[in-house]
Design a protein that fits this description.
This protein is of the alpha+beta class. The chain contains 1 helix and 5 strands; from the N terminus they run αβββββ. Strands 4-3-2-1-5 form a 5-stranded antiparallel β-sheet, with no helix packed on it.
Amino acid sequence: MSADDLENFEADRELQLAQEYQDIAGMFRYAVETERRFYLANKVDVTVGGDATRPLIQVELTDAWVWDMYRKSRFVPKVKILSFKDVNVEELPGLDI
């Protein structure tokens, strides 16, 4: 496999992932972004522990989808994130019916 083939493969996977995201984003209530990954979830619990100089952020997601093009199954029932860095949690706008 040449470098061009590998680039094309990764570009195709990224495009498929973006299309999947657009198809399923409306099924989720929250978007969660960490330094390493992006998630969609229907339930998010955030706990901050540790000390003031180095807080530990623990985020538990239920009914989640993970933005990761190399993962076989992006839908997961539970995710636990531990981070000493920023975690962004956004409530997504509901669909107007």
